[in-house]
């Protein structure tokens, strides 16, 4: 009981059922103070449901969920003053200007822009030249920054960001993660969900989620370390045929396409590369390339999914 | 309470930034009042009559010219064939046929009585009975004069020994516009407030901003007050604007207290806004709001007594009118403006609406959920 206060978020055996569909099937995790916690999974995995429950927008079907030691069902009012939420869809007033949006959200939390300006300064400074522009007329990246400012303006203890980088260009995505890391350094606990596996490495800890169940929770490095197998990248002149052919070989375990390469694992610990090359040549493949590579989060995800 | 101020501020910025809003607030009342008050009249003017005069006597000419002389009739055609006349009615060229049979004058001279026939297009029942009533009175008038002419002596023994002197109170000239304008104004104010309030909240649902608001510590009542007050103010302004149009363009008398009228309007608008809010809590798109609101509006307007007195409706309809907000305001606005009714005259309507407002508002506050 002693260390209970250290956890900012405590979720145990959370379930959420929509009529007949079970969206979240008994999920448990804890997030410590100042942590950047990532919920990684494909669309429909249940990430948004979990976040909507955490932000008290929806009641859980069963299970205990606590934020800042407040229960999300019985004490939701205490939670609302202390969290910043950025929904998946841009949901600020499109017909209000940048400054009006920010001022409105500051005021209804009983504060002012000036009071917490320090917290948003780094981000706001980038959109300040457009402060009189209507929010609906901003570009995607700027909308994202404004939404983050609005979620931060009341200086929340926890920030909940639902797929903040979906639909944002690569440069803005990188910038956005840099902003999150700076916010983390200011002591804000951040929960973020994303379908992009490459963003997992930016988190302190990640939960890999699929079909409403958490498959693994660990530091990104540890998740990768747990992969525990060798992995090869294979390529040839006919990549489509290659998938079929590799899967038909008896000592090959899994084959998944990753960009221009196929990531391949073997049923045994190691793979006889010469034998593999020979077999592929027999099936009329040319320009065959086989490299041993390090696994990344996505490989781990695929691996966990097939289990 | 300060949060309500911020929500109000935000709502007004949004309302006045909306480019269709101002034309709607000012344009619609002018168009509706000016066009509808003139158009929605039950007075019959320029009734098209078709004359089939088979008698062609001086007396039949006199009867026809009696109609001709009236401002209500114009003769759209005449012939000797009743078939041609029927055809004119079928082609909508005539509203009714005046059929004077052969021997009209002769019978009248010899037997002291004669017959004419009125054939009226009955598609619109109201219009048909009005045509009948007008024409019968023209013929009755003709009748009286004929007796005087034929007997060549002043009529001592009148066929109507009791003469009826009618005097219409509160609207002595039976000016239809004075009656219609308050009614149309009620519809106008209701549409503006109910639709705008309901659409506004559903719009926040559609855009997703409601989520962002729901995670804030705004209280339910703060949100609802912040949403309703702007439309209450706009609707009251609309009412004042409409009354001004009525005063200056239609010379609608305003006998009663305007303060009382506006006081009643506030209670009425709370009911209407409560209904609007309730619709918005059970809908998730603006389209749904449109359909639900439109359905209720149509039923309520037609049952409200804008055209026909509610007392002549069947009993069940009068019972339904208990939940029809239009019904109350339609009565009260006419009572106050035309009759000069005071608070105690309208107290039954007033307290009914107070109860109604409390029910509707609590129902929608209860239905509005910050958590799903």
Q: Please give the share of residues in helix of chain B.
A: 55-70%
What is the percent of helical residues of chain A?
25-40%
> What is the mean predicted local confidence, pLDDT of chain A?
87
Biggest sheet descriptor of chain B: 4 strands, mixed
Shape designation of chain B = elongated
Overall radius of gyration of chain B: 28 Å
Helix-strand category of chain B: alpha/beta
Q: What is the general shape of chain A?
A: elongated
The CATH topology annotation of the largest domain in chain A reads as Rossmann fold
Any idea what the radius of gyration of chain A is? Answer: 23 Å
Summed over residues and divided by their number, the pLDDT of chain B gives a mean of 85
SS element count, helices of chain A? 10
What is the CA–CA distance across the termini of chain A? Answer: 35 Å
Q: Flag low-confidence runs of chain A.
A: none
Number of strands of chain A: 14
* CATH secondary-structure class of the largest domain in chain A: Alpha Beta
Coarse structural class of chain A: alpha/beta
* Percent in strands of chain A: 25-35%
Instruction: Name the helix and strand elements of chain A from N-terminus to C-terminus, one letter apiece.
Output: EEEHEEHEHHHEHEEEHEHEEHEH
Sheet-strand content of chain B, in percent, reads 5-15%
Biggest pleated sheet of chain A: 6 strands, mixed
